[in-house]
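FORM 7B: Structural annotation worksheet

SECTION A. Query
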Amino acid sequence: MRAVVLLSGGLDSYTAAAVAKEGGHTLDALTVRYGQVHVTEMQSARKIARALEVERHLELDVNLAAFGGSSLVGDGAIPQDRSIDANEIPSTYVPARNTIFLSLALGWAEVLGAGAIVIGVNALDYSGYPDCRPEYLHAFERMAALATRAGVEGKRVRILAPLLTRSKAEIIRLGSDLGLDYRLTHSCYSPRKEDRPCGRCDSCILRARGFAEAGLTDPALHP
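SECTION B. Predicted structure
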């Protein structure tokens, strides 16, 4: 029941990790500093790791900004105030990011003897990223079974995505029921001074909509 959780510092990864812990998993957290312009989320990831009492929190540097190709790594402006269409892949998509992150988590999981990787992806209220879809996660899990010693020996590493089919409002209600402190989280792609959320990027818009639909107040905005 040991699992590696991909911990970004955002609301979804925090909730997914908490669900796994509630389900009996011992957690090791992996956070990747990939050249993101909103690097303040690293601080949130550390706070969340402490709150969850993970066994170990590992931070890795993998500079995807060297490739470019995404406004999240400084290649172009972060879109604001747009109408979010899940059929349109936005400029904030980071090429192959989840594949890279899951591969890193898979390598660590093998070393630790962990039987699962936890990821907070969501296929309903999201920005249209192709690597957040269930068919992608199933394919990666099949690949992991073929590409690892653990898989060959019959010890498959599962990909756990407990939020995959939940709306943002459902995720927030779930976290609230688990007693999570969402003040610890950071979601904004383009934070203002003192790391305050811009309120205009896709992530801020989806978060605000989720709290409104859940009938709750976002504690990060009203501490």
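SECTION C. Observations
The first strand starts at residue 2 and ends at 6. The radius of gyration is 17 Å.

SECTION D. Sign-off
Analyst initials: ____
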